Amino acid sequence: MEQKRHPLFIPLIFVGGLIFGFGLGFSHMARPEVVLNFLQFEDFGLLFVMGGAAVVTAIAFALVPRLFDRAPLTGDTYGRRLKAFDRNVLIGGAIFGVGWGLSGICPGAAYASLGVGNVTILWALAGMFVGAYIQGYWRSQRAATKSEATSAG
Amino acid sequence: MVTELELFVPALSESLFPAGISRYAVGGLLVGLGAVVIYLGTGISAGASTFLESTLSYVSDQSRFQRYVSSRDWRVVFTLGIIGGAFVYALTFQSGVVSSGLYESGTTGQLYDLGGFSLWLTDVQPWRLFLGGILVGIGTRIGKGCTSGHGVCGVGSGSKTSIVGVITFLIVAVGTAQVVMALGVSP
């Protein structure tokens, strides 16, 4: 990185991750069984994990941009997480849904699962890297082909 | 006098939430708080799945991964933080060293002892984790986010894209889990 970062940038990211991971452990979302019990309608508690987290971020995303101009550690303005909608959101979401429903684990919860001692989750993490690589390889190749076609045309 | 409602409501709550709601709600608030701490300090809406691609940029030159080079170091730190935070939970509440009325220990999986602390192992079969993991890796990256990026930060931002994304993966995941259960695959 050329850009000089605030010395507290990395420590703050770590502290945020610690709280995030502790919450995933405490809520039992780091346990695939608990996610599967939710998806199989045996325990709806997981709604409170996602709902509780979204309520907290919603309050922050609504208030922080009005109260402060720029983030102290980056100098960036406060934005919201808005991404453009296209077909990929549906296709990717559906593929993710099949994987989540089969395994009971998503990326953040998988990292936390490792933290609670679940070494078996390395299977899921290995799978996630394989999956991310497959789509990244494919999309990189496709982008390269497209730009070649454009420059040739 | 006990009315029917007084009998019905606890019974319904017991069947919908057999482990109560407090551990879920408290855990969820902490997940949100972790995301907010990062947002307050840096303006970044952190998601967990970009780490998969940004970390691949260390070993692959593919353009899709190289675009994340500038954020790959802090994403590693974020992930190490998540692992560390869950480990702190394991050493405290999971091990029973610290307890609270808000925390309900579970019956899922298996606890094992390491140096006097309780660690936890899943019973879910490795093939499910691996195959599911591959689909999670493909889907979250094509779909522009996962449970934390779309589900926590995106929904918290009121993003319609994220709300549609969450509804999509929730419905498909419920359908998949129901089919897997109906086929008798367990755990």
Structure, explained:
The complex is a heterodimer of chains A (153) and B (187). Chain A has 153 residues and is mainly α. Chain A contains 6 helices and no strands. In chain A, helix 1 crosses helix 5 (107-115). Chain A is globular. Helices cover 62% and strands 5% of the residues of chain B. Chain B is built from 8 helices and 2 strands, in the order αααααββααα. In chain B, helix 3 crosses helix 5 (72-94). In chain B, strands 1-2 form a two-stranded antiparallel ribbon. Chain B starts with a helix and ends in a 5-residue tail after the last helix. Chain B has 2 domains: 1-122, no CATH class; 124-187. The chains are: A mainly alpha (153), B mainly alpha (187). At the A-B interface, helix 1, helix 2, helix 3, helix 4 and helix 5 of A face helix 2, helix 3, helix 4, helix 5 and strand 2 of B. Chain B: InterPro entries: Sulf_transp_TsuA/YedE.
In whole angstroms, the N-to-C terminal distance of chain B is 44 Å
User: What's the number of domains of chain A?
Assistant: 1
Rg estimate of chain B, integer Å: 20 Å
Judged by helices, strands and strand pairing, the structural class of chain B is mainly alpha
The main sheet of chain A comes to: none
- Multimer state: heterodimer
Mean pLDDT of chain B: 95
* Strands side by side in the biggest sheet of chain B: 1-2
Q: How many domain units of chain B? A: 2
What is the H/E order of chain A?
A: HHHHHH
> What best-fitting shape of chain A do the alpha-carbon axes yield?
globular
Name the beta content range of chain B. Answer: 5-15%
In whole angstroms, the N-to-C terminal distance of chain A is 36 Å
SS-derived structural category of chain A: mainly alpha
**Any low-confidence stretches of chain B, pLDDT <50, length ≥5?**
none
- Using DSSP, what is the number of strands of chain A? 0
Q: How are helices and strands ordered from N to C of chain B? A: HHHHHEEHHH
The total count of helices of chain A amounts to: 6
Pfam families (chain B): Sulf_transp
Keywords (chain B): Cell inner membrane, Cell membrane, Membrane, Transmembrane, Transmembrane helix, Transport
Subcellular location (chain B): Cell inner membrane
Membrane topology (chain B): Multi-pass membrane protein
